[in-house]
Amino acid sequence: MSLVLPAAAIALTCGVTESDSRTLPSGAVSTFLSCPGCHSRLWSERDDRPGMGLRAGTLDDTSWVRPVAQFWVSSAQPWAVAPGILTYDEQPTDPGPMLAAWQALG
């Protein structure tokens, strides 16, 4: 699970990260920043998008997290698909419905 945030919302307060990048089919470059000790991904950045994807599992308190959408369900296990939220077989191209669902949470 990832939280899409503005780049300025993420700050590393201690330690260091390691990074790995890959070129996507679109030609955009996606960079993943990870903990060098356990190699858990912390967040990702793309050179064609302004936001960052923070991994929700890295938060100390996830009680406030409410998912509004799920992507790539075409390759998900049936038990991993959450009912009642926006569902996309692959990567959505229009963020509008997700933004509206997030804003509706109040």
Number of domains: 2
Principal-axis shape equals globular
The H/E string reads: EEEEEEEH
Distance between the termini: 20 Å
Mean pLDDT over all positions: 90
Low-confidence stretches: none
The number of distinct β-strands equals 7
Q: What fraction of residues sit in β-strands?
A: 25-35%
Q: Order of strands across the widest beta sheet?
A: 1-5-4-3-2
Helix content: under 10%
Sheet of most strands: 5 strands, antiparallel
Class based on secondary structure composition and strand pairing = mainly beta
Q: Radius of gyration, rounded?
A: 15 Å
Q: Number of helical runs? A: 1
Kindly describe this structure.
By secondary structure, this protein is mostly beta strands. It folds into two domains: 60 residues, no CATH class; 41 residues, no CATH class. 8% of the residues lie in helices and 30% in strands. The protein is built from one helix and seven strands, in the order E-E-E-E-E-E-E-H. The strands form two sheets. It has a five-stranded antiparallel sheet, with no helix packed on it. The chain has a two-stranded parallel ribbon with strand order 6-7. Strand 3 and strand 4 form a beta hairpin. The longest helix has 9 residues. It is globular. The two termini are 20 Å apart. The mean pLDDT is 90.
